[in-house]
Amino acid sequence: MISKDDYTCSICLGVFVDPCKLKCNHAFCNACLLDLIDFNNIKYKCPMCRLEFVNKDNPLSIDEDLQNIVKENFPNQYQQRLEEIKNIQSLLPNELKIEVNYGNYFKSEDDNDDGLQYQWTTHVSLDYTRKSDKIALKDLDLNSLIKNVTFQLDETFFPDVITVRQPPYLLTRWGYDVFTIPIKIKFKKEHKIQPIEFEHHLVFEGDGIEKRQIVKIDISNLTQFQELKQYSQQQQIQQQQ
Ligand SMILES: [Zn+2]
Ligand SMILES: [Zn+2]
C-alpha cells in the first residue's frame, strides 16, 4: 500500500512537488527548501533531523523517481499543490536564488625532470534553482548577464590575474600543484547586480570536481523582471474590477 504520509513534505504538508532528497534521506519540495534554508551560509541543517550539511554538496537535485510516484498515485493533490506554488511564485521577489556551478577537470602528463604535470581547466556558469523562475523570466540565460569572470591565480603564474570576457567562462593552465583560486563574477553595468565572489580549490583526483553554490542576486533592474511585475499588476487590477 502506498501511504500518502510517505509522500508528504513536512514543510508545506502537501504532496511533494519537485522533491529533493537530502543525504539523511529526508525529502522536501524544492520550493519549500529554498524558502526555508538560507543557502548563503556555508552549512545548513535538515529541517527534520537537524543533520548538518555543507552547502557545496549539491543540495537541490530533484528526485524524479519520487516525483513520478507522487504524480501517479496522488494526481489531484499534486496538481493542486503545483497550482499553489505557481501562484506564489508568480509574485517573483526582487531577490532570485541562483546556482553558481564551478569546478575543474584535469589531465596529467609525466614530465621527466619534475614529476607529474597537470593541465587543468576551471569553469564557472550560472543556472536557475527553480524551473518556475526560468519560465517566469522567459528562459533568460543567466550567463548572458555576466560582464566578465576574473580568476586570481597563484603568484607563480604570469599573469596571475586572468579576466575572461566571453562565455564559456573557463581557464586552462599547466601546473604541478593544486591551489585555491579566488573567482569574481561581475555583471553588466545596466543590471546593477552585485558581483559574486567565491573560491575554488583545484582537485587533481578522480575526474576532478563539480560544485554548486546557491547565492541571491537582486534582479529588480532586469527588463524581464520589470515586464513580469507590470503584468502581475495588470492582472491584479483586472481581478479587482
Ligand atoms: Zn513542501
Ligand atoms: Zn534529515
TrEMBL record:
It is an enzyme of class 2 (transferase). It catalyses: S-ubiquitinyl-[E2 ubiquitin-conjugating enzyme]-L-cysteine + [acceptor protein]-L-lysine = [E2 ubiquitin-conjugating enzyme]-L-cysteine + N(6)-ubiquitinyl-[acceptor protein]-L-lysine. Its main location: nucleus. It comes from the Eukaryota. It is found in: Nucleus. Keywords: DNA damage, Metal-binding, Nucleus, Transferase, Ubl conjugation pathway, Zinc, Zinc-finger. One of its GO terms (cellular component) is nucleus. This is RING-type E3 ubiquitin transferase. It comes from Paramecium tetraurelia.
